[in-house]
Design a protein that fits this description.
Layout lengths: L2 H24 L6 H12 L3 E2 L17 H19 L7 H17 L3 H12 L11 H4 L2 H10 L9 H10 L19 H4 L1 H11 L3 H17 E2 L4 E2 L19 H15 L9 H17 L22 H16 L5 H16 L26 E2 H21 L27 E6 L18 H4 L9 E4 L9 H4 L2 H6 L7 E5 L25 E6 L4 E6 L1 H14 L3 E5 L7 E2 L2 E2 L6 H12 L2 E3 L1 H17 L12 H17 L11 H4 L8
Parallel strand pairs: 5-6, 5-7, 7-10, 10-13
Antiparallel strand pairs: 1-4, 2-3, 8-9, 11-12
Helix pairs in contact: 3-4, 3-16, 4-5, 4-7, 4-16, 7-10, 10-11, 10-12, 12-13, 12-14, 13-14, 14-15, 14-16, 20-21, 22-23
Keywords: Hydrolase, Signal
Protein name: Glycosyl hydrolase family 88
GO molecular function: hydrolase activity, acting on ester bonds
Length: about 675
C-alpha cells in the first residue's frame, strides 16, 4: 500500500470514529460497511455528502403555510444547493430530479435564476440524453428540456429534437433493450423518471403516440409490482419475497414517493379526457390513504415504511415526494382537503426541522434500491429536488388561501367582508371582480367548492404582478356596486392595472325580493325601474345588466386601467348531450357591452362549455361541488385555464409579459 493510500485509509477511519462517537451519543444506528461504501461513492460523484459536523440547524424558518414563509424556505434550500452543485451538473437521474425542483422553484418564487441555470445546463449538453436506447433514468433529464421548451415562447425545435429521437428509438421495444428481457419500467423509481418525459413530449409535439406508450408501460409495471393488500409498489419484482427485520414486506419510502410524484407529473399534462386518467387518480388516492396511515409522530416517514423501529431517523426525500403528491392532489380537488391538509401541514413542519443554518437539507438517504441507514446530516441532490417540488405545491396552496375574506358562499350584507388588497403597491395588479364562481366563500375549498380566481394566481409570476381576487359570493352586477364593494375596489385601481369582470349568475332574480333584491333588468339597454329596496330600505333605480357592466368599464378606464369582460362560467346543465350556453342571455349581453365599449372580451362561457362537451356528463360530474353551479378545485382550475387561454386570444393581451411558466404553457383559445 502506498503512503498516500495509507493516509486516505487513516483519514477515513478517523472520520468514521468521529461520526461513530457523535452518532452513539445520539443513539442513531450507523450505516453498515456496504452502505458506507455507497455513501462514499455518492460523495465522490458530487451527489451530496454527510459530514460529521454540518453546523447548527436553521432557526429563521417558519412552518406557517404562508407565501412568504414558504418562499423563505424554498430560497434558503435552493440557493445553498445551486451554489454547491452547479459546477458538477450532470445528466444522471440524481441531478435531473434536482433540475425538476429548480424549475418548480422558479415558477413558485418568480426568481428566474434557477430556471436560467437549467437553461445553461441544457445548452452545455446540447439538449441531449446520456445514452442511446436510454432507460428511464437516462430519460429523466428530458423533463427539464421539455419544460424549458414549453416555457419558451419561441419553442425552438432543437431543444427537444435529441430527446424525441431517443424516445422514438425505444418506443417500439417491448423490453428494456435488445437482449434484456425486463420490461422498460421494471423498477418503481422509473415511474417518476420516465412518464413525465413521455407525457410532456406529447404536449410539445401534439403526437399522442407518446401517451399511448406511457399508458401501456405504466400498466405493465402496475401489473408486475402493485401490492393489492398494502396499496403500495414493490421496488422491483425481487422485493416481493424480501422482508424487513420485523418480518413485514419491504416498502421503501422514497420508492413509494417516486411513484406518487410520478403520478402527479403525468396528470399535470395528461389530457383531461384521456380514458386512463381515472386510473392514475385512483392510484394517487389509494397510495395517499395508505401513506397517510404510516406518518410518524414527527410528521415524517421512515426509510422502511413498515419497520420504522429499524430506521429511527426520518427520511426527507420520500417525505418530500409524499408532500408534493398529496398537496397537488388537494390543490386539484383529487384528494379531500379536510383529510390531507393536517397530514401535509405536519409533514412540512417536520421537514423544516432538518434544514441547517446554511441551507443544507438533511436526513436524505443515499442512493440505493431499498431502505438503509444514514446520518442526520446526509444531503443529496434528488432529495432537495423533491423538497422544492413540495414547496412549489405548498406555495400554490397558500396563494389559494391568502387574503380570503371571512364570508360564506352567499354572505349577507351585514357580514364582515374583508377583501384582499395588492401585496406590493409598486407592481401592477390584476383585479378580479365577480361572484362566487370567481371566489367561493373563504376561498379555501370548503364544502368542496372553489371559484376560478384562486387557482388563477398560479398562472402569473407574482414577482411581476399582483393578482387580487375581490369577488364576493352572492353578488350580482348590481349589488356589488350598491353595497359599496366596487367603490372600495375602484379606490385601489391605478394606471396600468387590469380588471377582469364576470357577473350574471345572480342577476336573474327579482328586483325587489325580500331575501336578496339583487336582480337586474334583462339586456343591455337604458331601461330602468324604480323600487323600494327591502334590503337597503331605501328608494333605488334598477338598471339593465348591460348598464351596470358599462359602469364598471367606464370607471376603470377613467382610472387609467384596462377593463376586460368575461362571460359567466357555464352551469352544469345539459341538453341533448351538450352544455347549455349563455350566448342568448348574460353571456351574449356581456359580449355586447365589450363590443360597445371597445374593450377585451373573454368568452369564458363558450371556452369552458366546449371542454365540458368533450368530457361528457360523467367526466364533468367530479368538477362540481354542488348540483349545477359551484366547481370543485379541479373545476376551478379548468375555468382559470380557460380565462388564461382567453387572455392570450385577445388582440392585445395586457398581461402577456406577466405569466408564470404554467401560464406560458397555456395555448390561446382559437374560437370556432
Amino acid at each position: 500500500m502506498t503512503g498516500r493510500s495509507t493516509k486516505c485509509v487513516l483519514a477515513t477511519a478517523m472520520l468514521l470514529l468521529t461520526v461513530q462517537g457523535a452518532m452513539s451519543a445520539q443513539k442513531y444506528p450507523l450505516p453498515t460497511a456496504a452502505q458506507q461504501a455507497g455513501i462514499d461513492k455518492d460523495t465522490s460523484r458530487h451527489f451530496g455528502d454527510s459530514p460529521a459536523d454540518p453546523g447548527p440547524l436553521a432557526t429563521d424558518l417558519s412552518p406557517d403555510l404562508t407565501p412568504a414563509a414558504i418562499d423563505a424556505a424554498t430560497r434558503k434550500v435552493a440557493d445553498w444547493q445551486l451554489a454547491r452543485s452547479q459546477p458538477y451538473f450532470d445528466r444522471i437521474w440524481t441531478w435531473s430530479v434536482l433540475y425538476s425542483g429548480f424549475m418548480a422553484a422558479s415558477d413558485s418564487t418568480g426568481d428566474a435564476k434557477y430556471r436560467d441555470a437549467m437553461r445553461e445546463m441544457a445548452k452545455k449538453y446540447d439538449w441531449s440524453l446520456r445514452n442511446r436506447l436510454p432507460n428511464a433514468d437516462d430519460q429523466s433529464v428530458g423533463q427539464t428540456y421539455l419544460e424549458l421548451y414549453l416555457h419558451d415562447g419561441k419553442k425552438d425545435p432543437a431543444m427537444i429534437a435529441p430527446t424525441r429521437a431517443d424516445l422514438d428509438s425505444v418506443i417500439g421495444l417491448s423490453t428494456l433493450k435488445p437482449g434484456d428481457p425486463r420490461i422498460p419500467w421494471w423498477w418503481c423509481d422509473a415511474l417518476f423518471m420516465a412518464p413525465g418525459v413521455w407525457v410532456r413530449m406529447s404536449e410539445a409535439t401534439g403526437d399522442h403516440k407518446y401517451i399511448d406508450y406511457l399508458n401501456t408501460q405504466w400498466q405493465r409495471t402496475y401489473d408486475t409490482l402493485w401490492d393489492k393488500d398494502e396499496h403500495l409498489y414493490a421496488r422491483d419484482a425481487s422485493y416481493q419475497t424480501k422482508r424487513e427485520a420485523n418480518g413485514k414486506k419491504i416498502f421503501w419510502s422514497r420508492g413509494e414517493g417516486w411513484v406518487m410524484a410520478g403520478i402527479v407529473r403525468v396528470l399535470q399534462y395528461l389530457p383531461k379526457n384521456d380514458p386512463h386518467r381515472a386510473f392514475y387518480v385512483e392510484q394517487l388516492r389509494e397510495m395517499s390513504a395508505r401513506v397517510a396511515q404510516l406518518q410518524d409522530t414527527d410528521g415524517l416517514w421512515r426509510a422502511g415504511l413498515l419497520d420504522p423501529e429499524h430506521y429511527p431517523l426520518p427520511e426527507v426525500s420520500g417525505s418530500a415526494l409524499f408532500v408534493y403528491a398529496m398537496t397537488w392532489g388537494v390543490n386539484e380537488g383529487v384528494l379531500d382537503g379536510a383529510t390531507y391538509r393536517p397530514v401535509i401541514t405536519k409533514a412540512w413542519g417536520g421537514m423544516l426541522q432538518h434544514v441547517y443554518a446554511d441551507g443544507r437539507l438533511g436526513c436524505i438517504q443515499q442512493t440505493g434500491p431499498e431502505p438503509a441507514l444514514y446520518l442526520p446530516s446526509a444531503s443529496y441532490t434528488y432529495g432537495v429536488g423533491g423538497f422544492l417540488l413540495a414547496a412549489s405545491e405548498l406555495k400554490r396552496m397558500s396563494l389559494q388561501h391568502s387574503g380570503s375574506a371571512v364570508v360564506d358562499t352567499d354572505p349577507g350584507r351585514s357580514a364582515n367582508i374583508v377583501l384582499p388588497v395588492p401585496a406590493n403597491s409598486s407592481l401592477p395588479t390584476i383585479f378580479l371582480v365577480g361572484d362566487s364562481t370567481v371566489r367561493n366563500g373563504h376561498g379555501d375549498g370548503a364544502n368542496n367548492q372553489m371559484g376560478w380566481g384562486e387557482p388563477f394566481v398560479s398562472y402569473f409570476d407574482t414577482s411581476k404582478v399582483n393578482v387580487v381576487n375581490r369577488a364576493i359570493g352572492g353578488r350580482s352586477s348590481r349589488t356589488y356596486i350598491t353595497e359599496g364593494h366596487w367603490e372600495r375596489t375602484l379606490a385601489l385601481i391605478k394606471p396600468g392595472d387590469v380588471v377582469l369582470f364576470q357577473f350574471g349568475h345572480n342577476d336573474s332574480g327579482s328586483l325587489d325580493d325580500t331575501a336578496r333584491a339583487r336582480g337586474t333588468i334583462n339586456g343591455v339597454g337604458d331601461e330602468s325601474k324604480e323600487i323600494e329596496n327591502p334590503i337597503l330600505k331605501k328608494h333605488e333605480v334598477v338598471h339593465t345588466f348591460g348598464w351596470y357592466m358599462a359602469q364598471y368599464v367606464e370607471q376603470t378606464k377613467a382610472k387609467g386601467a384596462t377593463p376586460i369582460i368575461c362571460s359567466l362560467v357555464p352551469r352544469k346543465t345539459w341538453k341533448d348531450g351538450k352544455i347549455v350556453r349563455g350566448a342568448s342571455s348574460y353571456g351574449g349581453w356581456a359580449r355586447e357591452v365589450a363590443d360597445t365599449e371597445h374593450v377585451g372580451f373573454i368568452d369564458l362561457n363558450e371556452i369552458t362549455a366546449r371542454k365540458y362537451d368533450a368530457l361528457g356528463e360523467a367526466g364533468v360530474e367530479p368538477l362540481f361541488g354542488d348540483p349545477h353551479t359551484h366547481t370543485t378545485l379541479a373545476g376551478a382550475e379548468m375555468n382559470a385555464e380557460s380565462v388564461v387561454s382567453g387572455l392570450k386570444a385577445l388582440k392585445k393581451d395586457p398581461v402577456g409579459k406577466d405569466f408564470s411558466g404554467k401560464g406560458k404553457a397555456v395555448k390561446a383559445y382559437r374560437g370556432k
